[in-house]
């Protein structure tokens, strides 16, 4: 389960994936020709759909109804056979997905009863105090992995994945191992994976995804077939969302498009989480307020900004914890997320602040665009078009450049220098208020 920004995972097919026509064509041709590579490297922006396409690749490759002489155009998951359904659920013996994650142990009460002897062995002291209730509930711990942007892929998990990769396929034609955000592997893990790529397992294909190929070992990159992914344009994403949600409020579609940053799966999830759109509205109101605020208001505005990460986290996780999981799995994930938020609140706030700064950056990007090209149709926050158009002439080009720079400075202070969150928010508000006056 991805705690921040996990890509949409729902049963689809190549034909229904929005965008990514070139990567999909490469994969279709490889399957049709029977020349599937032993390793691919999917490169593209975070959460743009790389893992989704990799999963569809695994489904199409192992579809039980795929003709032996299929043309590239015919290479498609049927969405109905055993392999297609289970791979789409990430619950298939020939699919393994490894993601950077933090392990959280969640206590879970099971319904299994135990005998007097077993009960005393499990907890002798408790059994002596309550011998009449030897069939009490057994408490177990369930490990739940929570994906975070600052999490790493540890060596032990890579070793488990390598061992899995060398096993023969159980049900399908070929095993697929997907390593998400492969650049987050530690050095030892990366070198272990490199050895696997040098002596690739038979009947297994590894798909590595990354937004930062420069952080991978060059020797890993050289042993993979690189496939590049690109974000959708603002207009294309808005059109695709409108087609998917024909009855949705246009304002909600505009907000989801602006928040998604060209990522269709993310936009789809935002439509299921209206709280995120509301928080975006509050954040843009705050950004607009800096245009005529007095410097003495910086503390109050900074406090408002500092309160947003917690609310953003809650809205995101409530929407994402469900997915296709059972009710018990959903409950465990929510408990794990709650435990993580309690044990590491500062870490969570810093992570969520990155998304908030992304939204702020789009506001000043739009002001800069409208300052130089009034009436431009390339505005990201299209639902705030009139407000942006009215504010843009009030800023100087230098002031808008300054605003963008101080947002990136705040990001760097929080992530690299671990600055105090409250102070960083207050300083940012001071500088954004000053941006209007900068000439």
Describe this structure in words.
The protein has helices at residues 21-33, 50-62, 82-88, 116-122, 124-129, 155-165, 187-198, 218-222, 234-244, 250-260, 264-271, 274-289, 298-320, 327-343, 345-372, 385-391, 397-415, 421-435; strands at residues 39-43, 95-98, 102-109, 139-146, 175-179, 204-210, 225-228. The chain is α/β, with parallel strands linked by helices and 439 residues long. The chain has three domains: 14-100 and 150-228, P-loop containing nucleotide triphosphate hydrolases (Rossmann fold); 103-146, no CATH class; 273-435, no CATH class. The chain has a five-stranded parallel sheet, with helices on both faces. A two-stranded antiparallel ribbon has the order 3-4. β5, α7 (187-198) and β6 form a beta-alpha-beta unit. The model is unreliable at 1-11 and 109-137 (pLDDT under 50).
Q: How do the strands and helices of this protein lay out in sequence?
A:
Layout: H1 21-33, E1 39-43, H2 50-62, H3 82-88, E2 95-98, E3 102-109, H4 116-122, H5 124-129, E4 139-146, H6 155-165, E5 175-179, H7 187-198, E6 204-210, H8 218-222, E7 225-228, H9 234-244, H10 250-260, H11 264-271, H12 274-289, H13 298-320, H14 327-343, H15 345-372, H16 385-391, H17 397-415, H18 421-435
Parallel strand pairs: 1-6, 1-7, 2-5, 5-6
Antiparallel strand pairs: 3-4
